[in-house]
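Thread: sanity check for a docking pose with flavin mononucleotide

Original post by kr_44:
Hi all, I'm comparing my docking run against an independent structure prediction. Below are the sequence and the ligand SMILES. Could someone generate the full complex and paste the structure tokens? I mainly care about where the ligand ends up relative to the chain.
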Amino acid sequence: MKRLEGVSIALGVGGGIAAYKAVELLRRLVDEGAHVTPVLTKNALNFVGLTTFRALGSSEPVVSLFEDSSPIPHTKLGQGVDLVVVAPATADILSKFATGACDDALSTILVSTDAKVVLAAAMHKEMWSHPAVMENIETIRRRGFTVVDPEHGRLAGGDVGFGRLAATEVILDAVVGQMATRDLAGYHVVVTVGGTREAIDPVRYIGNRSSGRQGLAIVSELLDRGAHVTAISTIDPALSSSYLEVVRVESAIEMESATRSACKDANALIMCAAVADYRVESPLVNKFKRGSGNLPEIKLVENPDILANVVADSKMYSQNFITIGFAAETENVEANGRAKIVKKGCDILVVNDVSREETRFGSADNEVIILSADGSLKYIPLAPKREVAAGVVDALVERLLSIEFEQ
Ligand SMILES: Cc1cc2nc3c(=O)[nH]c(=O)nc-3n(C[C@H](O)[C@H](O)[C@H](O)COP(=O)(O)O)c2cc1C
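Reply from moderator J.T.:
Ran it for you. Here is the predicted complex with flavin mononucleotide included:
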């Protein structure tokens, strides 16, 4: 699936040490189906060669306002693109964009466009923490443009700190996110994320291998598609959006209570968390110490089935409330999934085979079968979790649309 099919993009490249990484981004944008026109600053040409951008881009790169065959290249390009992404965005480019300065092709295009703008900042750690740079970024964000923060890591000259250009995948996701259809604007979706922890004593717990990555990918996908999201999570999602509310929980009992309460004014629940089936009946109040006498015996009791319980009382929340469950299977994946969707009574069940190396808990990729209560089935072959998330959210949107159509 090409995520940027038909999208026209200007790729701005600033004069920073990370300019060479723009080549990889260019390639990935084109692979995703975008038509990309590179726009390099004169200073960028000290770091990278025009020939590479000419060979990989979809159009002739732009460097100057005055040497292009078009009489007014900035407005032509500014009006013709859907998105401008600048990577690396130097401190200088951020400063110009914050103040509206236009002294070269890139800065002038940035001010001559009403397309979406994504700036991936990269600079030395001292520059990144300078109040002038911070204030420029604040101004840019306040105006509704996207700044992708740099990462911590090795910088030019052997220094280490915050300032390294974000990974190509992160910048690509930000671009795709800006272009995604906002087909869930106005909808509220509750997502459970991570694996629960069941206390044994104040320091020990029974856990599972869930990393929460698939759940976080779903949260990001929902946000990009305009949904209001409540994440009931056992991990810190490290995502910030005014459309996201995070409720931190630890145990299955806490997750159940938070989920049921959040679902009251929601349109859908995506139950992606790995919830422990059992908990310790009576967790110890104090830490169990070695040599404290007899070895402790842990008695387990069954945890509530959150999905089944939400399905059971979903009529109280909203007539059209949609429930999506996840099932991790290690054998007879489809057959077990079909039995489970009937047992749980949910609208959609996403089944994955966690016995395989590539799709184990914590892996970057996943391969799933999306089963619907009407018996239909969609298979998503091995793909990054964000792509699987897009498939799950597509299934949700289809179900929402079919309910609205039936009414
Ligand atoms: C070796 C070297 C590396 C540089 N790396 C960066 C950088 O990563 N980020 C940055 O903001 N400036 C960096 N600079 C400074 C910029 O090149 C300088 O501010 C320039 O005016 C930016 O031009 P532009 O924004 O028009 O491309 C670097 C300079 C040199 C000499």
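The domain at 188-406 is CATH 3.40.50.10300 (Rossmann fold). Hope that helps with the comparison, let us know if your pose agrees.
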